[in-house]
Amino acid sequence: MSSSSSSAVPKPQPKLPLKQIPGDYGTPFFGAIKDRYDFFYNQGRDQFFKARIQKYNSTVFRTNMPPGPFIASNPKVVTVLDAISFPILFDNSKVEKRDIFDGTYMPSTDFTGGYRICSFLDPSEAKHTSLKNFFLSLLSANHKNVIPLFHTHFTDLFVKAEAQLLKDGKSDFNTLNDKTSFDFIFELFFGKNPSDTTLGSKGSTLVTLWLLPQLSPQLTLGLPKLFNVFEDFLLHTFPFPALFVKPAYNKVYKAFYQSAAKALDEAESNFGISRDEACHNLVFLVCFNAYGGMKLLFPSLLKWVGLAGEDLHCKLRDEIRAVVKEAGGKITLAALDKMTLTKSVVYEALRIDPSVPFQYGKAKEDLIIESHDAAFEIKKGEIIFGYQTIATRDGKIFKNPEEFVGDRFVGEGEKLLKYVWWSNGPETVSPAAGNKQCPGKDLVVLMNRIMLVEFFLRYDTFTLDVGTFLLGPKVTFKTLTPASS
Description:
- This protein is of the alpha+beta class.
- It is 47% helix and 12% strand.
- It contains 16 helices and eleven strands.
- Strand 10 and strand 11 form a beta hairpin.
């Protein structure tokens, strides 16, 4: 008898009744197509999940996730949609993250120079450790430049927004934010404005051209129902060839390679990563992860703050201006840390509307997971999927979960931060080489705080119209009331 068999440790028994996971995948091929149409057209993203929670009386169930045929060979997932079951997706000892960053499909590596980028690597892979440590080192080295650079770039955005309002009676924040965010993040990492490189003023446009084909299986354009079949065939049925966006990507890569010499030197000498692989990973980090996130984060933040109304605006501006005055009129990290309401508003925006709402993992072994009400067995190799937008609105954890509550995380509310997962991990945990948490987690929180501070130092209040564009909100300023004191 082997020692392993005689000393095997029995698996802990679940505290809740073990139930069979409800739901099914329908008939082969057609079941996945039906679920895809429900997701994009018949029900819509949120209702797709809410209807199944109600149907099965369970926050854990089986379904197919888009895109399905012919982009994803296996669209079958076990869905976890509550605050108890969802964190299984962060346990790297139980789930694998290899090639699952975008879900049940993986875009061709032709989009990224032939490399499997860090986001698609599992923490168990040696290259993941090297790349993640490189990213964390790079972010740490540039941390001190965030506040002054943000002020420079976004002051220019506000000036342009005011000019648009004066001329047209409204201002499209998203369009201004796209260019400003790309210029800011490029200069933060590489010390120069992209307009001073071969990209000129077209950097954000070229990056968006490269991003869209990779994300198209998750998108709907919101066209009239008459065009649903056409859109579904175009976006969700076959992979988009990287060949069509290769010229745009090559221009971006060339500008990065020429501008990131210092960072590439560090990657090569300190982390053992070739310059070519490091540069393709930097393009993905800066353009897909950082810029792609900023395209969604800032409109979402302003959407929720704007809809909250003038009472919250008054409280924010009073806190922000008092703390900045106490700091000698300067925005500093120490001053930002004293703004308890401002911090809470940022966390609440990230809770109620996370910029990356989908998380996936593949079970490394047979697992028992628990929801609030029951335990479920997941077999080795099954894909586990979580839709964060519902899981972080768990009514058994958060009071009034569907409402934006600006001071939710003030005082005792800070204890709830462990249920804020926008960064692919709890807000109470830090990114490290051994996990899949966003390496820019702290930077994102900092940028959102600075956005509110810069905004309410300049304006007393504002009004806006909110629409939808692709994966996030579209914000149009109707009024910006200048600061009165």
